[in-house]
Amino acid sequence: MDPYKPPKQRLLISRNIFGNYGPPIPIFSDLEINSQENWDIPETLCFNYITDNIINTHTNKKLHQLIDMSNEGQGWITCGCSVGENGLVNCFDNPNCPCFEVNKTLEALQKTDEQRPMRTQFKTFNHLNVRGLDEYFDTFAFCCSEKCACQGACSNNVMYMTDKNAHRFEVYRYDEKGFGVRAMSYIPYGTPVIEFKGELVEYKTCLERGSNDYSFQIKDKKLTKLENASAKILKSIPGYDQNYAKLVKETLCLPWYLDPKTNGNEARFITHGCLPNLSLIIAFKGGFSPHQMHCLMISSEDIYPGTQLTFDYGESYASQHLSGNCLCETLTCQRNEEFKVIGLATHYSFIREHYFYCSFEIFTKNVNHIYTTHIEIC
């Protein structure tokens, strides 16, 4: 996606949309109709900025119990790793680090096949081999936390850069697409970019609030591999508590969502893209309770300053809200007329998958095969 080119005259709404919290993130209106005299604050700007997910314990009693037990020290997975010779805490690849061992166990849950032979290794400063939306619910990381001896400042914390707000962003309003977020610094491919934050709730709560269009699913209720793996891991930690492990299993199987409508961060403004530059993974920090889950956005291509950030909202949202109305203007956008002319519209999912996973040679070979087949049929 080409970098966004703002107009010469812009209306600065706020130098920092989030007040005194976090790094300054300005917000602009680039609509020609807006001026200081006629500017109205949209409802979408009226929310509380948060630096950590909000946990609503009133909607789920078992989650409330889990958090109480966690506050008493139950269920935490921590390490005693100390600083190495080079000044870094080398938790990753350390067979004596419990957090690294858990990270490797979760890595083994990732599916592999001929097109995706490699699993993603979640090391703090490594390039991450992003796997795309269809692998979202089997791609998990485990991070060292502030309760570890390393305090999370180590090689086994994929959330380190997002926790430190390493990247700079700008929120802006433009044409019919509404608000968007663009990067203000260079972000290499495979880099943790931002954490999607909100209030952790079940889907039924989203429906009751009418916030389901804003909310993002971070746990699939049908996923059992993670639940089984977490149960085995919890049994192996010192001070294993059977009641705690039971509560984790009973709550982890629920369909959890992050609702950013009332409480969120700048990630709530990131728009949909049929061929997005962000991919998503789930990271656990310190344990396996739902309140220790985090949604991280990883760059799936080099992102240059000024480029708009996008991620795939998913087939359900696209079919309900974007059918025939998508404005992402990417290669595989279903409104792309050139894409339809050459007969590739029906191969949307195929193209997107190969864009994420394959080398350029394999990608072009498969596209040429589809194109040739289409011509022969015509």
Automatic annotation (TrEMBL):
Residues 167-314 form the SET domain. Gene3D superfamilies: SET domain. SMART domains: SET. It comes from the Eukaryota. Signal peptide: none annotated. This is SET domain-containing protein. It comes from Caenorhabditis bovis.
